[in-house]
Specification:
alpha+beta; 6-stranded mixed beta sheet; 39 strands; globular; binds flavin-adenine dinucleotide
Length: 1119
């Protein structure tokens, strides 16, 4: 059996999670390429020019420069393209030019030539070819080329570098270009041909404007350097990789005693979407003058330096950019080297009991059952379902106002577009034009008159093709009468507008403790929102039946019953006419509990009696669907000399958006989860869902958990700061312990597993020793600007869905006469491995190898009234139901099995069939005791707690604000893991998703509530290079969930996200250390996420309340 070397058990023995020997080694001849394509490919070398044509558009692939120029003359409007990556509208078919001349098949443009006086890089040379082709550089002559090569290697991703060219990057005409500043200071020139001979054009800001249409650049020439030349390039972005510069700077100088010449070019996209002026990179003439007049560069942030930067930046100047450029200039002569270790990871988990049968899969690290299909692309998601006969595509129209009335809406021109079939609007909804994710319906499916937020879907065009639909959408004319939009929590608080009841919990358990208070503090913290960024966007296909109002919906939803009931209500038909089917989702994270795409598709399908497919594009998804709630929390905390919290009052305001969605329930959960991993005996908390003119915010992994942890961990940090204690000691003092009664509900903590995780994590991370090492590192004068931080934090989590009636699960298990088994249950596979776990459970209970069991989909046809897959409860609810169904079958088969102990399974089933034994069973589970009542603060909020502790070490570059997580150790109590491979995957994934939330994912709204960060080029999620360099996860041994858990396992989907806050507290430690060294108050309050910009500002004392407000509300223009 092949081995996956990543998984280790307690004795460091390798455990295979999949059998690599079964992987197929694909050879080119195995690929199914048609004969005609093969013929073209074989003849490519011999062909002169390939032309592709479609819809009147032409793409040419000439093979010589002359051919390209003659095509350009023949088609004067044609544009040149190489990788085709430069420009934001590259995927917009309608806006693409009619004729494109691709230069990628011209061999002569692919050449790099080293000449006596410099290096000539052909226009067709990609970044990858440039990096590979410029190996042997002369360190003196080729200084500029080396800087170019080093930085070309860091551009975007491998995929982009493989097709994008250096010349394309120069002519891209974008202020984010890193290549333009370098080539400018290197005094490079473009060699340009246009059929009338060639000319040279010096590279510099605005170089693309110096070229005429039809000018073809054949290469870029970089002159040699001399021994005293210095060329440096610095880049500051919001994320270390795959990100454009907020500020970049290239500098050339000649470092002799008498500086003769300095060239400085500053570029960058400013604060990305916030204030992008889209101005070119520009020469920093004042800095150049200042630099030339100094003999040894800049040694400090002198007033003259800051003033010169300010003048050079002009309108773009702000404290952050001035500070960053000053730091860049100061650091030019200092080579800062952070040693990055090779990424490593260990996963430790309990060994399977030796008495367990080798075919019994429970507790084994089995790979996710559709992992292979998902990797190869064979796994089918909603939009992979082949087109149905007569299918139409739906393209949505979004409101461009936040709070407005539609005065006029005209679709006349849109309807004339060939292929357009219908306009779908509120008028077409035969039933209730309202739906809700939780509680009574309050959200219009499509608005009649009033639009409530920017991005709201007003209607949809139904067309034969997406292209026709998109063209028509542009022609729909809408006139609004707009009203002022209320966007921020602050405005809603000021006007005291709420969307539902405020959640309020107060409990005073220990008066003596309260009296022991010796200190107190107040503070406030602001937390941003977060996009779900699931891989698969919101999608649905509605297929009308031919008879009796039947309808089948294929939906990407976590909530099959929710979709079924909302669609039935909108169409005014009973639920038994609607079947919802879900094979799998490409991620959900709480964002797919709603039913909007299904509703619109169903309304269209019913109106037109044709299958209708609605697949959101990423931007539609981001602007029309809900996100993580923003929160503002104010706290007042009292504590005693030992650092124990004696009482705390926390008041939260939550940005709910325009409708309820889950915000009222969410606020209740926030109130419950504000205690994080601690027991606060005297606690008074409230969470107020505020109504604003934004899209209603919705569920997101953790559901109040990470937000509550951010608030409470800030309080703990503050206590440590005020008492001078190690924060770990303060945390230990307040940790939730066995026997504790929390501030909510009546459940008593029945074990000390959180303490066990705590101690094991302290031990595993070697916390106290590492803390000393971190302090020594920070005190070392060599590390003036690089500081480290370490932090260990606990989390406890109650997997549950708030309404008792929702604590139910069902499963249907069928055995066919060949012995094969089909399992269905009410849970949805969102990528979390639920189906894999369910098959493990069925296999164990039935005592049949897992290979004999299959699971196709979740369907309302087989499992009725299923609870939404949420709250980390799906395994508990559906797993129990699978157990019950399988137990019933085992009981039925027992007489045959007992009488024939060695009889093969297939024979047992065959015999059972002949004996007319029912070979299918239904399991229904409804025993969970969770029944919390927030009004009374009674009932229990948990069957068990999922516990965990994480210790993170970070390194912060205080001159840029960048940080790297050097190491994270997690010890997690998942009870007896049903599947350690899947559980550890969930822990790692949740941690990294939370890490994105607290450090880089910044969701920015404009003044009208419009989202500025509408795609992943402006909204930054962590990349592979952001994950902890060393990432160790251990599952706590000998832990067994005692109550109501499937095979003693615990829900794990959400809890670990809380542990990512350890990075925030570790960054705090590092920044505090730097601030101390600069005589600044080590304590600072800062909004989440801790972006590079905020970390930089915190290091340099540039954060103030006023600035924070400015920072978040700055006007912006789209890039
Ligand atoms: C996800 C992503 C991340 C990125 N990150 C970075 C980054 O970190 N730093 C950075 O500097 N850049 C970055 N870029 C920009 C990237 O460098 C450019 O997109 C790329 O270099 C353009 O090269 P191309 O071959 O694709 O050009 P194309 O898109 O083919 O062309 C770009 C322009 O140049 C013109 N052109 C191209 N070749 C010629 C020629 N021979 N003669 C005349 N005109 C020509 C085209 O007509 C077009 O106007 C990023 C881009 C993306 C998509």
């Amino acid at each position: 059996m092949g081995k996956n070397p990543q998984k280790f058990d307690a004795t460091n023995e390798e455990v295979a999670t999949y059998d690599v020997s079964k992987f197929k080694d694909l050879k080119p001849e195995d690929l199914s390429i048609s004969e005609s394509t093969k013929k073209i490919l074989n003849n490519v070398e011999k062909m002169k020019c390939i032309t592709f044509q479609s819809d009147g558009k032409k793409w040419f692939y000439p093979t010589t420069v002359d051919e390209a120029l003659s095509l350009s003359k023949q088609f004067p409007k044609a544009v040149f393209r190489q990788g085709g990556t430069g420009g934001y509208k590259k995927f917009d078919y309608d806006d693409s030019p009619m004729e494109v001349i691709f230069l990628t098949s011209i061999p002569s443009l692919k050449v790099i030539t080293t000449k006596a006086d410099g290096v000539l890089i052909g226009a067709g040379v990609t970044y990858t070819e440039l990096v590979e082709g410029l190996h042997h550089l002369d360190p003196v002559k080729h200084k500029a080329v080396k800087v170019l090569r080093d930085n070309a290697a860091k551009i975007a991703s491998v995929q982009l570098r493989n097709i994008a060219t250096l010349v394309g990057g120069v002519l891209w005409g974008h202020p984010g270009s890193d290549m333009l500043p370098i080539l400018t200071v290197a005094e490079a020139v473009l060699i340009v041909e246009n059929g009338d001979g060639h000319r040279q054009v010096s590279v510099g800001p605005g170089v693309n404007r110096k070229l005429k249409h039809g000018d073809l650049v054949v290469g870029v020439f970089i002159p040699n350097n001399t021994v005293n030349d210095i060329i440096v390039f610095c880049k500051q972005a919001r994320r270390k990789t795959v990100e454009l510069a907020v500020v970049n700077m290239a500098l050339y100088t000649n470092f002799t005693n008498n500086i003769k010449k300095t060239i400085i070019v500053i570029g960058g996209i400013d604060l990305a979407v916030k204030q992008c002026t889209l101005q070119d990179s520009s020469r920093a003439l004042n800095l150049e003058k200042l630099f030339t007049s100094k003999k040894s560069g800049f040694a400090d942030n002198s007033a003259a330096l800051l003033e010169a930067i300010k003048t050079d930046l002009g309108l773009k100047a702000d404290q952050y950019k001035i500070g960053i450029i000053a730091e860049m200039l100061n650091d030019i002569m200092v080579s800062k080297k952070t040693v990055l270790n090779k990424p490593s990871a260990h996963q430790l988990f309990e060994k399977v009991n030796s008495s367990q049968s080798s075919v019994d899969p429970i507790t084994r690290p089995i790979a996710h059952l559709s992992a292979a299909e998902q990797c190869t692309g064979e796994a089918q998601f909603t939009d992979d379902i082949p087109n149905f006969v007569g299918e139409l595509k739906l393209v949505p129209i979004h409101s461009t106002m936040a709070n407005a009335k539609i005065v006029k809406l005209c679709t006349k021109d849109a309807m004339l577009v060939p292929g357009v079939v219908a306009w779908i609007s509120a008028e077409d909804i035969p039933g209730l034009n309202m739906y809700a994710n939780a509680g009574p319906p309050d959200t219009p499916i499509l608005p009649k008159e009033d639009v409530n937020f920017h991005g709201m879907i007003i209607g949809a065009i139904a067309a034969e093709t997406i292209e026709a639909g998109k063209e028509a959408v542009k022609l729909v004319k809408i006139t609004y009468k707009s009203n002022p939009a209320l966007v921020t929590i602050a405005e809603a608080v000021e006007k005291d507008i709420c969307i539902g009841d405020k959640s309020f919990i107060e409990r005073n358990q220990d008066e003596t403790l309260q009296k022991s208070s010796t200190h107190s503090f107040d503070g406030k913290i602001k937390l941003g929102g977060q996009f779900h960024i699931y891989m698969e966007p919101q999608s649905a296909i509605a297929v009308p039946g031919t008879e009796k109002n039947e309808l089948i919906i294929y939906a990407a939803t976590q909530n099959a019953t929710g979709v079924q009931s909302a669609v039935a209500s909108a169409l005014s038909i009973p639920m038994n006419k609607v079947i919802v089917k879900i094979r799998r989702l490409g991620g959900a994270f709480g964002g797919k509990e709603g039913s909007l795409p299904s509703l619109i598709a169903a309304v269209a399908a019913k109106k037109l009696m044709r299958p209708c497919r609605m697949i959101f594009e990423r931007t539609s998804d981001l602007i029309a669907m809900g996100h993580r709630h923003e929160v503002h929390a104010g706290y007042n905390v009292n504590f005693n000399d030992s650092g124990k919290i004696t009482s705390a009052k926390i008041e939260c305001d939550v940005n709910a958006g325009s409708f309820r969605d889950v915000s009222v329930v969410w606020s209740m959960f926030l109130a419950m989860r504000l205690d994080a991993g601690y027991t606060i005996k005297n606690f008074n908390v409230s969470a107020n869902p505020r109504k604003t003119d934004l899209k209603s915010n919705t569920a997101f992994r953790g559901f109040g958990g990470p937000e509550g942890t951010c608030v409470m961990e800030e309080c703990i940090e503050r206590i440590a700061h005020l008492t001078g204690k190690d924060p770990a000691l303060v945390r230990r003092e307040n940790l939730t312990r066995e026997g504790d009664l929390l501030h909510q509900g009546e459940g008593i903590i029945c074990d000390d597993n959180l303490l066990k995780c705590w101690e094991q994590c302290l031990d595993q991370s070697n916390y106290f020793e590492m803390r000393k090492e971190v302090e020594n590192f920070n005190n070392d004068p060599a590390n003036k600007k690089i500081k480290r931080g370490i932090s260990i934090i606990p989390c406890k989590f109650t997997p549950f869905i708030p309404a008792k009636f929702r604590s139910q699960g069902s499963a249907y298990v069928r055995i066919y006469i060949d012995g094969s088994i089909l399992v269905s249950h009410g849970g949805v596979e969102v990528g979390q491995g639920l189906h894999t776990k369910m098959l493990q459970v069925a296999s164990t209970v039935l005592q049949v190898p897992i290979e004999k069991i299959h699971l196709v989909e979740t369907s309302t046809e087989t499992n009725v009234n299923a609870t939404t897959t949420a709250g980390s409860t799906a395994t508990d609810l559906n797993g129990h139901a699978v157990v019950l169904a399988c137990e019933e079958l085992v009981e039925k088969l027992a007489p045959i099995r007992d009488a024939n102990p060695n009889m093969p399974w297939e024979k047992v089933i065959f015999l059972a069939y002949f004996q007319r034994i029912q070979l299918s069973a239904f399991g229904f589970y409804n025993r969970s005791q969770v029944d919390y009542n927030i009004k009374e603060n009674t009932g229990v909020t948990f069957n068990y707690l999922t516990n965990g502790v994480a210790c993170s070490i970070v390194e912060v570059d205080c001159s840029t604000g960048y940080h790297q997580v050097l190491k994270t150790d997690i010890v997690m109590d998942v009870g007896q893991s049903l599947n350690p491979a899947i559980d550890i995957g969930q822990i790692e994934g949740a941690f990294v998703q939370g890490y994105g939330y607290v450090t880089m994912e910044e969701l920015i709204h404009g003044k009208e509530g419009e989202i500025a960060t509408v795609n992943v080029s402006t909204y930054k999620v962590p990349t592979i290079s952001d994950i902890p360099q060393e990432f160790n996860v251990t599952l706590l041994r000998n832990s067994r969930a005692k109550k109501e858990a499937v095979f003693s396992s615990k829900g794990i989907g959400e809890p670990p996200i809380n542990l990512s806050i350890s990075v925030v507290t570790a960054i705090r430690h590092a920044v505090a250390s730097y601030r101390k060294s600069c005589n600044l108050d080590p304590w600072f309050q800062m909004r989440i996420p801790f972006t590079t910009e905020r970390i930089f500002r915190a290091c340099h004392g540039l954060i103030s309340d006023e600035e924070e407000n400015i920072l978040s509300n700055k006007p912006y223009t789209h890039v």
